[in-house]
Each structure stands twice: as C-alpha cells, then as structure tokens.
Amino acid sequence: MDMEDMGVRHPEAFHQNGRQTSTAGEENTVKKLGSSTGRFANATLVRLSEFLSAGYKKGVRPVKDWRTSTIVAIDLMVYSILNVDEKNQVLTTYVWYRQSWTDEFLVWNPEDFDEVKQVSIPTANVWVPDILINEFVDVGKSPDIPYVYVTHNGLVRNYKPIQVVTACTLNIYNFPFDVQKCSLTFQSWLHTIDDINITLMRSPEELREDKSVFMNQGEWELLHILSNYKIFSVDNDDYYAEMKFHVVIRRRPLFYTVNLLLPSIFLMVMDIVGFYLPPDSGERVSFKITLLLGYSVFLIIVSDTLPATAIGTPLIGVYFVVCMALLVISLTETVLIVRLVHKQDLQTPVPHWVKYLVLERAPVLFCIHKKHRLCSRLSSQASDLEHYKDNNYGTAQCTLHHTCEIGRRLSQHDREGGLLGLGLPPSRDPTPPVMDNILQEVTAIRHFLEKRDRCREVAKEWLQVGYVLDVLLFRVYLVAMVAYSITLGTLWSVWQVA
Questions:
Q1: Structure-model confidence comparison of residues 95 and 284, the more confident one
Q2: What is the DSSP string of 384-413?
C-alpha cells in the first residue's frame, strides 16, 4: 500500500516540487538582480531591464510552443503625399506604421517591480518580425526609432514613421481630374503562416475613414484607405499571409484648370469671335494666324506641366491637339472664303450646281439670309456702274448725234459753196472717215463696259457663295466645338464627382 501510494503520489509531488523550485528560482533571480549596489541600487527600470534580458534569445521566435503562430497586428496612417512621379510610376508617401505582437519571453509581475506595467527597451535587443512592403523600390529617408514598448503581459508595440517609396500603376488619362489607387502590401518575407500571421489592429471601417493625421493642404487629397487580407502560396506548399492597404488619392484640379484649361478656352472663344470679321477683308486671316501662333506658344509653355508617360496620353493632351486642329481648320476655312470673295475679272461663272446647292437650297435649309452686309459694297458698286453706263451711253449718243449734225451741215455747206462756185448743182456725199472712227471708239467703250458689268455680276455671285459658305462653315465649326466642349466637360465633371 505504501509503495502504491508512493507510486501514485509521486507525479503530483514532482510537479509541485517543480513549480515551487521554478517560483523560488524566479524569486531568487529577481532578488539577485535587485541586489545591485551603487547608483543603480534602487533603479526599478534597471532591475526590470536586467530581468528581461537575462537569457533572452532575440534570434528565436518568442513562443514556448513552436506550433503556436505569432500573430502580428499592423496599422497604417497616411501622413502626407510627398510625390507622385507619373513618368517613373512611383509614389512617395510618409506614413505612420504601427505593429504589435506578443513576446512570451518578455513577461513580468508588476508587483515585483514597483507596479511598472510597461517599459521601453532597445529594438536591437528583442525579436522583430520580418514584415516588409512588397512594392518598395527605394529606401526612403525615415527617422530611426531605436526603442519599442513592452507591457508586463508580453505585448510588444513597435510604432515608427516611414517614408515609403513604392511602385504604383498610375493612370493619367483623366488628368487633372484623376483618382489614383496605390497598394502597400505587408507580408513576412520568410516566415509562413504557421509561424507568422497578420491581422489588423483596428477595424476596416475605422481604418477606411481615418484622416486624422493627414496633411490636407497639398496637391493630393486622401479619400480613404482600404484593407484586404489574403493567404497565398508560391509553390502550393508553403502558404503566406499578407495584408494589402489600398491608398486612394485624388488630385486637386484647381491649379491646372486656371493655368491650362482657361487660357485654352479663351483662345478658342476668340477664334469664334473672329468669324464676325468681314471675310472680304484681310484682317480675319491675320487675326486667325495670330491666334494659331499664340496657341502654339501656349502649348510649348504648358508642355512641361503635363505628365509624361510611355503608355498613354492624358485626355487634356488630346484636348489641346484637337483645339490646335480646330484652329487650323478655322484658318483654312477663312483662306477659302477670302479666295472666293476676291475673284478677279478672269474668273469663270459660278457653276449651276453650285448656284442650286449654295444659293438656293442652303439658305432655305439653314435659314441664311441672301442679303448681307458683305454684298452691300459690291451692290453699291454695281449701282454706280449702272448709273455710269447710263450717263456715258447718253453722253455718247448725244455727242454722236451732235457731231453728225454738225458734220452734215458743214459738208452740205462746203459742197453747196463749191458747186455754186463752179456753176454745178449740189450733190450728196457719203459720211466722212472721222465719223467711222468715232463710232468704232464708242462701240469699243460700250463692249468694255458690258464685259465689266458681266464680270461684276459674276463677282457678286461668287461673293454671295462665299457668304453662304462662310455662315454654313461657321455654324458647323460652332456645333463641333460646342459638342466637343460639352463632352469633355461632362467627362471631367463625372470624374470630379466620382
């Protein structure tokens, strides 16, 4: 019986003795560490630091059971957007990164150390998880924080600011109303999910709406931060945990609207106003050439402001190119109209199909008035021509009639005097040669004036054709520009609200 009782009670006695020995060992250790003399005799933090560092192995994952996974809670707070490099597809941010985990070897009883429940110890003296950002492309200028906080139950808190230089796929098509979404992926570079697992320190809702530390005075505005947890495998053997943060930012477009869009809009409005200049004057061509040169200089100035990438062109760049094309089309149309209204005397008459389409059908379909101030000058010239012709014809006829009468009288008088002097009866003689010359000159003048009158009529018809085409092309140009402006304005408004 005694042997059996001893056999049964032996394990319990062994465990009790073990616990007592362990407790006694810890007490002895604490007493031994607290027996320091000199200036550190009553320093609680020194005693605690010596207690925690005694026998600590920072190169070993701090768990007593190797099957237990170390759970690392992380958090991210964006402080500032330093730079967005569209050409190199790089985002530079300044973030406040926080991570915490439980170190089972950094545990103490606060009662033994004057109720000290947390202490800061050097980061180099403790185990730190190898959690990195996958998108890192350069080492930022981050301040070195040499300490971590440790609580009495083994919770280690590592808080530090980081300047993050990461690769990001930037879509600049909507510039300057673009919204960018860049990812920061945190994961253990070596340890699998059986060794290190990752979780959030806060709820996803709190993380999404937190903008408490963001500097909101720069070019970029922080919209929200999304989080996504995922387990992945590279070779279908080892699985890793990752936490991905999606930083969503939006560009403030006021600067680019004032310096890029408004000058371009003003120049295009002046191009439209230029159509109200008379097409039969050379001022319109000079005005539009000046606008085209001014727009070219404007594009040269703003070329450095536009983001440059090898994979795409922003819509505002297409907008500038289309505006330049519209100015060229406007200048071409002006040159064509000026050429029509400045036809010379050797021009051909207006073809019948042009008269039918342009002078008869187009004014009815597009409500274009046939009479216009552009034709007034030529019409007045035509009326003056009619008056001049009537006066010249009347004067020529009167002069011719008067000259003929005088010639007939003088001829008759001479013939009668000569015949009477010779004693012969008077006889009738044909018209002298000088009268034939006068008649030929008058006929030539009449043919010249008639030909000039026909040329004036042809020029008047070409002027009317030019006027109708000018109004028609102006309306087409205006409709195209308004439709283009409405489309771009709608797209940019949707992108700004979204």
A1: 95
A2: HHHHHHHHHHHHHHHHHHHHHHHHHHHHHH
